[in-house]
Write a structure and sequence with these properties.
Protein-Tyrosine Phosphatase, Chain A, globular, UDP-N-acetylmuramoyl-L-alanine:D-glutamate ligase, alpha/beta, 17 strands, single chain, 428 residues, eight-stranded mixed β-sheet, six-stranded mixed β-sheet, 17% strand
């Protein structure tokens, strides 16, 4: 197979949707020789901030001289973003070779009508690639939930649960406690767990950690403080368990303090278990971390901001950042949301700040019709103009045509929307 045929084969499994469970991924991994057991691993779950925590960990460990693999999802622009080793994405040729290796296993499963999902296959590919590349560490992001997520066949050195808020309620449960239970499913016997969860979610996580004799460390606002910020960087004081750190990051938003504190708590756990990581590596690693599509400034005058806020908690974080960290005359929002999200709650948060909406949609099959988005915005009492543009490129061009140099254009609502927008925008 060439690369296009390889992608067609992989994406062909998306039609089978989401099927939680570990039987299929365990079978594939076993047939491959359980590659996920051949390196140290940090497992990162939670609702928001998972990707940023993964990126901070990758950067600090790489700065310390370790060969690090990172598995995250979804991708913004290219499928290769999901599997990275040594800051280099998997190449097209490498992906072809991996698919050729796994395809006979999958074909045998298909014959037995035991059909794996796209995410299960791609997770197995990542585990095998990290083994082939002889990584020292793999940082693995949970795809959905935790307990029955395909990544949850690992034996991690550390488990991280960033936070818990309402999401995927049709799959994970109707309330915070149910969702916390699913996310806490990544906690392993005697394996340290670090979390920034709070209230009832934290209580559930603490109970499960106790059952599994897993030492638990919590991160809250006492563990970090923002010292200063400007338009493209900010400085934090992180109060670690071993010492305090003054770090600077180009990743925007006050919430990054929590993400950095989570990552550094994990780094300290590794240090306590004998992994050599210097303070210089920590400071350098945090300083050079980037996470495209999350609070990413891509141009100035007018300021253009990309943020993949895709749920209520993510939108609240975006709104707080827009209020506290940016100065602008008018906020122009280019909005594309998936229809299975809590659209109304997201709109209620962003509407009060917005001078002008341009609704649009990504190519994702779950994308909300932009005309329906417009109706929902207007039904919530929004009095300014809402313009519909079916295609993201048209939405970007229109928003730029009406923006003045002191305005801010924010493209948000979904990582799929942001990814497609990024295809059309030149990054700074």
């Amino acid at each position: 197979m060439d690369f296009e045929e390889t992608l067609d084969w992989l994406y062909g499994f998306q039609k089978f949707g989401i099927k939680l469970g570990l039987e299929r991924i365990n079978h594939i991994a076993k047939e491959l020789g359980d590659p996920q057991k051949k390196y140290k691993l940090i497992h990162v779950g939670g609702t928001n901030g998972k990707g940023s925590v993964c990126k901070f960990l990758e950067s600090v460990l790489s700065s310390s001289g370790y060969n690090v693999g990172v598995y995250t999802s979804p991708h913004l622009q290219h499928i290769s973003e999901r599997i990275v080793v040594g800051n280099n994405r998997i190449t097209d040729d490498e992906l072809i070779l991996l698919v050729n290796k796994i395809k006979p296993i999958v074909d045998d499963m298909l014959e037995k009508e035991n059909v794996p999902t796209f995410f299960e296959i791609f997770t197995a590919l990542a585990f095998q690639y990290f083994s082939d590349k002889n990584v020292d560490f793999a940082v693995v992001e949970v795809g959905l939930g935790g307990r029955y997520d395909a990544t949850n066949i690992v034996d991690p050195a550390i488990s991280i649960i960033t936070n818990v808020s309402l999401e995927h309620q049709n799959i994970l449960g109707k309330n915070i406690e149910d969702i916390a239970f699913e996310k806490a499913g990544i906690i392993k016997n005697n394996v340290p767990v670090i979390t920034a969860s709070k209230d009832s979610a934290l209580k559930i996580i603490e109970e499960i950690a106790k059952e599994k004799n897993a030492p638990i460390s919590t991160i809250d606002k006492k563990n970090w403080k923002r010292l200063n910020s400007c338009i493209d960087n900010q400085e934090f004081l992180i109060k670690g368990f071993l010492k305090d750190y003054s770090v600077r990051t180009s990743m925007m938003g006050r919430h990054q303090g929590e993400n950095i504190a989570l990552a550094l708590a994990a780094i300290e756990k590794l240090q306590m278990n004998g992994t050599y990581i210097t303070d210089t590596s920590i400071i350098e690693g945090i300083g050079k971390t980037v996470n495209p599509g999350r609070m990413e400034i891509v141009s100035y005058e007018p300021l253009v901001l990309l943020d993949g806020a895709h749920n209520k908690a993510g939108m609240q974080t975006l709104v707080d950042t827009l209020k506290n960290d940016f100065e602008y005359d008018r906020l122009i929002v280019v909005l594309g949301i998936l229809s299975d999200k809590d659209v109304r709650s997201m709109l209620l948060l962003i509407i009060p700040l917005t001078a002008f909406f341009v609704t649009t949609k990504s190519n994702n099959a779950r994308a909300c019709d932009p005309n329906e988005l417009k109706k929902m915005i207007e039904k919530l009492g929004y009095k300014n103009e809402v313009v519909v543009k079916e295609h993201i490129l048209d939405a970007l061009e229109y928003s730029k045509s009406i923006a003045k140099k002191d305005d801010l254009i924010c493209i948000t609502g979904s990582l799929f929307t942001v990814g497609e927008a990024r295809d059309h925008l030149s990054t700074k």
